[in-house]
Amino acid sequence: MEIRMLKYFFEVATTGTLTAAARKLNLTQPALSRQIRALEDELGVQLLDRSKKPLQLTGEGIYLAKQAESILNLTEKTSKNLKQRNIIAGQITIGAAETSLFTTVLKGISKLQDQYPDVTIQLISGSLNDMLESLDQGLIDFLFALDFNLKGQYDFIDLKSTDTRGIYLNKEHDLATKDEIIGEEIANYPIVTSRSPIWLDYLSLITNKPTEDLNIRMNFNLIGNASLYPAFNKEILLLGIEGLPVGNTVKFIPVNPQIPSHAALLWKHTQFLSSLHEEFLYFVNQEIEMI
Length: 291
Known about the structure:
291 residues; alpha/beta; 40% helix; DNA-binding; transcription
């Protein structure tokens, strides 16, 4: 399957009509139609439901369109970086957990871009599982992960600093006057927590109860939107890490026992790193050494 054919199909999928896609690709509509049929013949599946107006994708077509977007983005990025191989330039794509520890990487990025202004960064947030899949597929270059224990499968740098775990709660909450919250106290209140097994295990550990016996009102994938909830609900306790941007009606209180969160920067095992990636790691390592 040629990249050219994939691009043709993706234009049809995104524009919704053969005519519009052909115009954008500077092809005639019959010529584009023949190319799509040839792609269908090659793959042995029907990609377009031509019996419906407007044109619709089949299930196989929807799948291929999603894959095509990732493949074409990766192809464009690779081509761009290779064409600029004689200078430090190009794009670095980083998947990152939501944590103040990422400040260390941002400082490294800032110094990298000060020295090499043609370097651009694409920053992506998502669940750990999604980001690991993207890393394995080469769709992101680096992954900044919290509490990831399978680092032996990747090359990595550990950060020296750690995150403090604790509770976000409304300042009118019963526990708001405390300097720290004992884990077992959490079990007496409705809870908001990550759906990650790491955090669920931690919650069970500090409360001395299985999670199914706790009053978990909300699970989240990314904490950003969930962190707004304590401002509106004066009963809930949101389990998370210190440093989230919250309003003046919400406060953070550390939990006892405390198990700090550790961060690592991961990338795929390779015998070769581009000059761009080597420079990125150099500047990040410099920032880590300064901690």
